[in-house]
Structure formats: structure tokens, C-alpha cells
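pipeline/complex-builder :: batch 7 item 3
reading input block
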Amino acid sequence: MTTLEALHLAKDYQIRGSGLRPHILKAVDDVSLIVRPGESVALVGESGSGKSTIAKMLIRLVDPTAGDITLDGERIGSGHRATKRYRKRVQMVFQDPFSSLNPSLPIRHQLVRPLRIHGIVHTRAEEERELHRLLDSVNLGPAAEILAKYPHELSGGQRQRIAIARALAPQPEVLIADEPVSMLDVSIRLEILQLLDDLKKQRNLAVLYITHDLATARHFSTQIVVMRHGRVVERGPSSDVILNPIHPYTQLLVRAAPDPHSEAFDLDPERFRLSPDVLVTPDDPGPAQPGHWARAWADDAAVAELLATA
Amino acid sequence: MSEPLLRISDLTVDYATDRPVRAVDGVSLEIHPGEIVGLAGESGCGKSTLAYTVTRLLQPPAQISGGSIEWRREDGGTTDILGLDGRELRAFRWQEISMVFQGAMNALNPVHRIGAQIEDVFVDHRAGLSRAERRERAAELLRTVGIPVDRLKSYPHELSGGMRQRVMIAMALALRPRLIIMDEPTTALDVVVQRNILEEIDRLRSEFGFAVLFITHDLGLLLEISDRVGVMLSGRLVEENTPQALLDGAGHEYTRHLLRSFPSLRGDVPLTGTRYVDIERGEEALA
């Protein structure tokens, strides 16, 4: 099975600066990730932290300014054919199930396209069998009825299931889920996340789960990577990062998240002193190092500002 | 216990479409002065329709089929909100009850400056104010919600989502209403910004003493900020209690389902990803 590896990814955007000089926005600044089969990595951070830019680079909708993306150590060539081969193996589920499905085409069409494009089916009979299997795997039925419907006839949760089925159609090895449940009602979010989790286990998928919801990140992922301003500020095994957040920004996230079941969380920038096993260094040691790491923030003006307002 | 500020009794609202829908079904709810009442429920459960009914913003095909909404004036008398019309309604709205609408991203007019939009409230409701006085009041409101005053000259797209939401709250505060209805005010914001806005609302409430009807589908959030929480399902208010009582043991199966549907961040509450079926109606509530 396949391991997705992103090394030193960076993306700069030119935005209008003052006067004639263009201003460079470092949307993603030297981020490395490894997602292994059967494992899910959560990428968390506020809006504008660069999470979605990473997703777009990983699915090749955006070209990185620097850095490498490899599948099982193999670099991905450029060009249409290489991209198509790559997308057969790496698929994405988008945030908004209301706009990620074509409103003017029935569900059947939206699921048949990836099956044909990626050569999964060759005959009508195979196509029919595969469609049923796909809908079955996302717990939607009866198949004939669903396939004939248009997106507007389905609920948000059903639409997101279709989007997941569509992503699974080419039989990918890596799935990137960019805020897959944030547009859905709280009461059905767990169902969809549970479904992704089951599929991950059944198909040995490598899953990158992008979210700003720390609670589900903890419960559905093995590793958590926290981003702020395009850089990784903390990474480590999920429960370690949530129960013992070291970087002030992670602590702020933990404090801000609603959690009526637990005691209030107190911010403590000195927390690292109590946790000698957590590595605190100015440079990201990268994902190959499996332990709990936080970026040193002594010289970071943005963190000082953050702590001042907290 | 003080007299309730707002008393909704047995309110029923229908959408008279080809297939009529009962959006609000016999809901009774009281809000006391200075209290935060949370209303939880998923899309389509009727919580926004309820908010629009209270502010009399419902448009056809929606029609109020029954019930009453009573408002306690400052002089102690009561006003029948459903009976207001024309000038009375205009004098009542925003003055007594204001509203922060869902989606701060879209609720401001993109082609007017923030200052002009806040001043509009005074143009409409405080005809006597001079231009300079209006400007001064608008500046004061921005200061109240923690936005630098020079932002009066900004257009909405120049502000972040959190700032836009603060502007919406400033507008809702403009006439010092005694009740502010907030319909999903923080849903589009990320957690840290959401927390700031919630703390801001709480601070302003202790400063000005208004009551809040806070509507969202995020029950976890409501449990933290509300004095009382109501849960709506298919137009009915199925349960109403204090957050602690709900956490200790909710009476209705649907509330228990909602309580189970968000994992605890730091606790070890087991996860269940099941679907709730509304037995009384014999249909899938989430279909």
C-alpha cells in the first residue's frame, strides 16, 4: 500500500503590496507530512493557516513553489498524464457537499465518470455492479433510486456520502478530506467521520483529515499536526497533543474549543517545563520523527502578541 | 422569579406551500431579563423560523397559524407582538428586540462603508440626531465591540469574519434593546475567533443587561454559554432545561442523541455514530 509523503512544501502567493512592490504571502512555509496506509493524520489550524493550500497542492490543483510530493518514495512527474495517474491513487473529499456536486447531473453520472475515466469498469454489467458496491460502501440505498436523483434531492449528509463514494470510485490509496463535515449538522458529523474511519480500515487507506475541530481530530486520527501562519507549530500523537499542548497557539485552540464534559483549560506557556519528553526546538524535525514536538516560540513576535491578548 | 421579558405561548407557524410544512409546532418558551437562552436543533427544525416570527420578519408563504407572543414593556405593561403593525412595529423592532443574522459574511452590504451602515440605524430610528451625533454614536459602538474607530471608513470585505460579526453585534446594540436574537452568529468562524465573540457577548450582556436568544446547531457550545437550553426537533420544543441538568440526564431521547454526537475534547466519552429516528413522527428526522 501507499505512503504519501510531502517534503518541505512551500507556496507563495503574490498579493498587492504598497506602491509598486508586490508583496509575497507565504501561505505554506516549509511543511512536511507523512500519511501512512491505514493511518489518519489530522491537520488543524485556524482559517488562513494554510491547511487548504496544502490539500490543494497534494491533489495537484495548485503547484507548490518549492518542495516534493512522493508516493512510496516515487516523485510525481508533471503534465496531464502523470496528474491523471496520480489522481487515480490520491483522491479528495471537499468541504461543501452543496457545491462539490454538479447540480445539473444525476448522481449516476457523477459516479460513473470517475469509474470510466480511470478505467475501473469496462462493461455495462461491471459498471452497474461497481455503482452498487460504491453506494453500499457509503451506506446509501436503495441504489436505483439514489442513482436517478439530482443533488438537490438529497440531504447534506447524503450528498457528502456521494462525494465520498465519488472519491472512492477510482480505488485510491490516499484520501484527502478537507473539512469533510464542517458544513453538516453536528448530529450527523460523527456518522460521516465514522464512515471515513471504517473505510480507512477496510481499504487500508491513508487519510489526511483537515479540520479545525480538535475533538474529532483527536478521536479519528493517530497524529495531529497544528499549523499557524503557514508553518507547523506542533505535531505528535493525537492524545499527547490535545491533553498536553505545549505551543501557546495549540493551548489557545484547546481552550477555545467547546468542551462541556471537561474542566476549563488554563493557558500556561511554561507547560513544557513539566514535560521533558516533548521536544521543543526552533526547527521542525519533520514527520519521520514520531514523537511530540513543538516549535520554540521565544523569538516569535506573533506568539508574544497572541499571549498578550489571551 | 422576575416576570418574563418574552413569553411565547403555543406558537405554530406553517409554510403554505404545495405540500404545507409545519415549521414551528406548538412551541412555548419564556425568556427572562438578562438571561441567555440557547436553542439547539439541526437544519430544518424550525429554530430560525421561530426567530423570524419573534422579530416579525416572516414572509409569505409562512403564516402564523396559532399561539401568541407577549412582550413585557419597561413600564410593566404587555405588548402583543403578533398584533403590531406599521408604525408600531417599526418603533418596536430594533428598539426592543434586535437580531444578529446568520452569516456575517453576507449580512452587511458590500458596497457601503461600515460607518454608513451603522449610522443607518440612527437615520431610521433616531430622526432627531444630527450627522455629527450619528457619527459619534457609530464610533462609540465600534469601540464597545473592540474595533478600532478608523474602521468606520472600511468596506465589509476589508474586515475579517470575526470583525464583521462584531460589527453586526454593534448594530444590534445600537438602540440598547432588551433582547438580542442571535441566529448562528459564530457558525462560520473558527474556534479561537468564536471564543472571543462569545466572551464579548457575555461582557456586553453584563454591561448592558440585555437578554439573548442564542440559536445554533452546536449543542456543546450552548451548554457552555446558556442559562437555559431548549432543544427543537421537527418544529417542536422537545426539552428545555439548565445545561447542568441536561448534562446530568436529559429527558428526551433526541437530546441524549445530540449530547452523544460531539466527542469530548479531553474526556474519554465513547463515540457513537448512529442516526436518530423520530419515532413519534415515524420518519427519519435527518433524511
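note: Chain B touches chain A at residues 42-43, 161, 190-195, 217-221, 223-224, 243, 247, 257-258, 261-267, 269, 271-276, 286-287 (CB under 8 Å).
queue -> next item
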